[in-house]
Each structure stands twice: as structure tokens, then as C-alpha cells.
Amino acid sequence: MYPVSNMTNIAKGLEGVLFTESKLTFINGSEGILTHLGIPIQEWAEKSTFEELSLALLDGELPTAEELAKFDAQLRANRAIPDKLIEEIASFPKNANPMQALRTAVSYLGLFDPQSEDVSQEARREISIRLIAQFATIIAAIARAREGQEIIAPRADLTHAGNFLYMLNGKEPSPEQARLFDIALILHADHGMNASTFTAIATSSTISDMYSCIVSAIGALKGPLHGGANEQVMVMLDEVGTPDKAEAYITKKLDNKEKIMGVGHRVYKYFDPRSRVLRDYAAMVADKEGKSNYYQILETIEKTVVDRIGSKGIYPNVDFYSGTVYSDLGIKKEYFTPIFALARISGWCASVIEYSKDNRLLRPDAVYTGLTDQHYKDLKDRQ
């Protein structure tokens, strides 16, 4: 540590601090740009799949058709989780936070992996494939057990997104539902050096095992300032109630300088491009399903926010519309953050693999602001 007189420039929250290089994700927050491998997120959402984006992130390049087919087959073959883990999940307290359950389940899963202590690049990649496949099974199992329902085994004939919805809801989703969830996973798969990705890398920098890296990331994502915002958006919508009350509700919050969930972002000073994609799909779902109440409330909130504080660079982020999309897919809000993890596991794994190729232990410092020139006092001499 350094005394305050020797170092006064502190980057609170590490904002603007560069600690590594990456070829995976680029963000231009002032213009609302997000790309993976140089390709705009809008194109990934429109033309690709979660499986393809996951492989592209792991390998740092677009796969060939043969490579993608092999990867997809590996994911399908690795969906099942150990029976002991299923028993353990079924025994979790019903009132346990789903993210606590996920964190525990992933740590437990590592005990069954003979490669768990292997930190070579090859092993990290193989473990990543299994984790991407098994996260869906674990999260669906946690939700089913928590609701007192029978845990459903994965199917190998469905897409990654379609299989998750099947295991979660107990019925095969329509192609439209599976594709909508696939797009939601794509939009959340990676987002640069966010808190959970940085945490995974920090753990990895000690040459720790892959499971420890991912458990660390889950712990960071659990916090409401990172992964829990979309759940809080739904709480806000329920508080508003009806579209005609939305403007007054938000105006009051703005007047009182209260935080509005799903609005504002540390990086974006313009519309989060992911929110634009989800807004369009949320509108389509609302029109098709006749569930326009939430969407109309969100429209009003967005307009009010942009009119009042858009000039300050505060706009809706990806969490603003994602909750309504998940809700329309039959997903309860308490599982929104685990589903965030279901998508982000690809980015976590890819970032750990990328950083570990040229690893350096992360060891930041702090400015010391405590007392100096002190001496130890015996207990009898202290007041």
C-alpha cells in the first residue's frame, strides 16, 4: 500500500483502468456499439445461435460448419449431470436463493470431474464445453426442485435453448419460443470486463481451477448491481400496475433522485444495443400473446426517462426488456439471474481461457489512509 500523500489518483470501481488485452468483445459506450470478434451484436442475434457464439468466443474465431457441428454434438452429449448432484439439488432448502443454489451446485459438480485440477489450455476448453452444456441442466433442476416439481432429464434432440425451456417448464417449447430464448442467451453471452468476468479472471490469474473461477463469477453476478437488475425491473412493473400510472410513477422517482432499475449503465452513454434488439422482440411477443400491459408500461417509462435524463447519457439497458421476454416464456423472476449465468458462462469461460494464455497474477494496490507512527499499547493501558 501507499500513503495517501504518495498516490492520490484513485480509479474508484477500477473505472477506465486497463489491465489486459482481449480480442473477444468491443464496446463503444458513447455510440451504443457492441461487437463480438468485430461482428455487431445485432448480426449475432439475427443470424447466429448461442451454440455458434459460444464456440466463436472459446476459439476466438468464427467456426466452420464442421467445427460447429462437432461442438453442438459435444454440448448435447454432455448435458446430463451426476445422479449425486441431482439428489443434492433436490435436498436444497426450498427457500434458498437460486444463485446460492447454483454456486453450490457448480462447486459440487467439480468434485466429479477428473479434469477439475488440470489447468492446461486443453483441459480448460474441455471443461468449458461441459460447463456450458451442464449449466442449463443444473439451473432447470434447481428451479424444478425449488417449486416442488420432478426434475426433468435433458433431451439430445433439442437445441440448447429449446432443451432448457423443456427441462424448466416440462413441455417442449414452440420453435418461436426456443428461438426467442436463444436470442436472449446470445445477447447476454459476453460483455467485456464486467464485474463477474473480471472476478473469474482474477481467480484464474492465481492458476486456480476452472470450477473455482466460475464459482467466483457466480458470486459476483449474484449481486443486485450486476445480475439482479432484470428481476428488479419486473418488481417495478408490478408496482406501477397499469400503463396509465407509469409516467407519474417514474416522474416521482426522478424528482426524488431515486434509481430506476434497468436504466443507466456504467459503460453505455447511449442506448444499450442489446436493449434495442430485445425491445423489438418484446413488442412482437406482446402483440402475439396479447400481453401488452408490461410492454406498454415499459414504453412509457422509456419515453419519460429519455425525455428527462437522456441528455445526461442515461438510457435503458439490456435488463430493461429482458425480464418481460423471460416472463412471457414462463420463467419466474427469481430465476432471471441464474438465466443470466446460463448465458454468461460462455463469456466467463472464454475470458479465462484467453487471459490464461499470457497469465499474470492480478495484484492491485490501495492508498493507505490509516494512522502512522503508532506503537502497541498493552490492554491495561487502553481506554
TrEMBL record:
Keywords: Transferase, Tricarboxylic acid cycle. InterPro entries: 2-MeCitrate/Citrate_synth_II, Citrate_synth-like_lrg_a-sub, Citrate_synth-like_sm_a-sub, Citrate_synthase, Citrate_synthase_AS, Citrate_synthase_bac-typ, Citrate_synthase_sf. Gene3D superfamilies: Citrate Synthase, domain 1, Cytochrome P450-Terp, domain 2. It catalyses: oxaloacetate + acetyl-CoA + H2O = citrate + CoA + H(+). It comes from the Bacteria. The keyword Transmembrane helix does not apply. Pathway: Carbohydrate metabolism; tricarboxylic acid cycle. Belongs to the citrate synthase family. This is Citrate synthase. The lineage of its organism: Bacteria, Thermotogati, Deinococcota, Deinococci, Deinococcales.
